[in-house]
Each structure stands twice: as C-alpha cells, then as structure tokens.
Amino acid sequence: MNNEENKILAHRQHVKYFMRFLNVLPSSLSSHDTTRVTIAYFSVSGLDVLGSITSISLDLQSRIIEWLYQLQVEPNKENGDMSACGFQGSSTINIDFESGNNHYRCGHLAMTYTGLCILLTLGDDLSRLNRKALIEGVKALQTEEGNFSATLSGCESDMRFVYCAACISYILNDWSGFNVERATDYIIKSIGYDYGIAQCPELESHGGTTFCALATLSLTDQLNKLTEYQIERLKRWLLFRQIDGYQGRPNKPVDTCYSFWVGASLKILDSLQLSNYANNRNYVYETQDCVVGGFSKWPDTCTDPMHTYLGLAGLSLIGENGLLEIVPTLNISKRAHDHLKALHEKWDSES
C-alpha cells in the first residue's frame, strides 16, 4: 500500500502480529522449527521496541524464560567437557546426553545470542546461566582464521558468527573465549576493494556482514584499527546503498531489513545523519500491512517476523515516534541494555 494513511505506524496491529507468533506459529514456518528461538527474539524484541513488552502476560513471560533455560546445553556429565555448551534453537533436537545420540546436542551461536537477548528483554537476572560453560562453548568455535563456526556439529563459519560470539562475550562480560586480535585481523582481511565488508576474505561486500563486522569492532573497542581512509570510504559505500530504502549490495533491490543493517552500520560510524531519513521512512512504511500487522521485505508481499522487527528497528534508529531507542551494536532496546549494565555492575561487585 502506498498512501498517506499507511505512513502512520499501525502500532496496535503490530502488537497483535507479534503476539500471534508467541502463541501459535503458522504452518509456513514449520521448516524454521529448529531456529524457533530467533522467531521468539524477533517477536519479543519487536514488542519491546513498540513499548509494549507488558502485552506479554507475566505467565507467558515466565513460560518463555523457562523454555529458554531448557534449551541451555550443560557440560557433559561424564567428563565435564564444555565445548558443546550454548543454547539450541528449539526442542526438536534437544537430545539427552545419556541417550548416546548426542552428536547434535550442542549450542548454536546465533541461538545463544538471541536467547540471551530475549532473557534480557524480559528482565531475567541471568542467574541460571552457566556463564563459564557458555564462554567455553564460544571459545571452542573460533577458527585459526579468526572467524567462528556456528556449532560444533559442523557448519559454515563466517562474519555472522563472529558477531554472535562478540555479543555473547559482551553480554556475559567475559572475553576469555574470544580472541579479539585474531577476529579483528579476520575482519580487516574481509574488507573489499570497494571498502564494504564481506562474509569472508575475497567475497562480495554485503550490508549485513558489514554491520556484523562494525558492531564486533565496536563491542571489542577495535574500531580504531580501521584507518581514517578506510572509514571514510566505508561510509561512502554504505550511503550509496540508499535508493529510497536501502539495498544490501550494489545493483540489488531495496529491502526493509537493510534499514537496520545499513542504518545501524552508519549509526556506529556516527554518520546516519548523512542519509535521507524521509526516503527511508517512506519505503519502510510502503511495506507495512495495516490490516494484520507486520512489515514485509518488499511492498505488496507477505510480512514476516524478521522484516517486521528489523523494519521497526530501522525506524527507531531515525527517531520514529512511538518506538523505544535501539542500541545498534547489540540490536536490543536501550531499556534492555540498561538492565544488562545493571547486571554487569552486580557481577563486578560479587567478584
């Protein structure tokens, strides 16, 4: 829809939209069952950014928290090995270690990151986390090149999981499982000829992985490892991704999610104000469904939780009325981040 009425945030519809995903998932998402934690993350964080976290009843909040802790992989009972520790994406492959079929009983970095974000957003005190085991699980996944694999059971390793590992380490306030020097070197080697940042060295620059790299450098206090020239050229590359909304790569269509990925990258570099807020806002609102709620990837296509949350997060970055402030590096609200900082102070006082 492209009309003036659609340029107003359909707040009530979006709240109902996210609540539906926290109660009953449509059959179209059955293929995503093993990553159900990410769907919960988009929904809970979306409600938070809308300032409607209280729409989740205390009972449902408690059940979500209990469900997440059931997905925490504990150290091996026989030998104490912590390399598999983390959060799984759902109970689909939540196999007991004692069954003998435990090859897939291991954490996944993206699920650990999003699981921790949900717990913070719901105000949990993280007291039931095995923080040491989670950090050992992160440490086991870093490669010699400096990047991270997602899981011990074998999968791709790239910039996405470098970011997830950095977020986990930041949230747990423990960098002992994250080799900062090696990860920074990997990021710098992944800078392309156009000064965007790729998944891996010598691949194509991409808006999503540029965000992952910049957020990691910010969280690890390593942004100063980029030269002034590299930063200025990277700003240029990011700003050139805007048409009305943002595209992820040159010669690709714009997409709602890049309002966050590219917008947050510019925010980290203190350059978002150089973009055209009005054009970005207009594009994101063109993808809004005012009837059932949600935002889609492109106008007049089906909405989904990821694009709905990232669309809202992108609007938050440019100061849209009715939305809470986002902390771009962690992709959680400032409210949740303030709760995290209070926990860090508590942990420091206890150590």
From TrEMBL:
Catalytic activity annotation: geranylgeranyl diphosphate + L-cysteinyl-[protein] = S-geranylgeranyl-L-cysteinyl-[protein] + diphosphate
Cofactors demanded by this protein: Zn(2+); Mg(2+)
Annotated EC: 2.5.1.59
Record's keyword terms, sorted: Magnesium, Metal-binding, Prenyltransferase, Repeat, Transferase, Zinc
Record flagged with keyword Nucleotide-binding: no
GO terms under cellular component: CAAX-protein geranylgeranyltransferase complex
Top-level lineage group: Eukaryota
Prenyltransferase alpha-alpha toroid domain sequence ranges: 9-332
Gene Ontology MF terms: CAAX-protein geranylgeranyltransferase activity; metal ion binding
Subunit structure: Heterodimer of FNTA and PGGT1B. PGGT1B mediates interaction with substrate peptides.
Family that this chain belongs to: Belongs to the protein prenyltransferase subunit beta family.
Protein name: Geranylgeranyl transferase type-1 subunit beta
